[in-house]
């Protein structure tokens, strides 16, 4: 997985999330499947607070 995805998703460093938009598509294409799986895990976690 791309290092920036690791920071944002793995370490929950949301301050770097905007940096993902500065990357070329080719830099992250190979990481998308793994990143989506990580997002699913995070979003289904009971520790995630949801706003209604």
From TrEMBL:
GO terms for biological process: regulation of signal transduction. GO terms for molecular function: phosphatidylinositol-5-phosphate binding. It comes from the Eukaryota. It is a peripheral membrane protein. It is found in: Endomembrane system. Keywords: Membrane. One of its GO terms (cellular component) is plasma membrane. This is VEPH1 isoform 17. The lineage of its organism: Eukaryota, Metazoa, Chordata, Craniata, Vertebrata.
């Amino acid at each position: 997985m791309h290092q920036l995805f690791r920071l944002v998703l793995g370490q929950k460093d949301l301050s770097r999330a905007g940096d993902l938009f500065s990357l070329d598509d080719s830099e992250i294409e190979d990481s998308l499947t793994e990143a989506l799986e990580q997002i699913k895990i995070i979003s289904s976690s009971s520790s995630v607070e949801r706003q209604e």
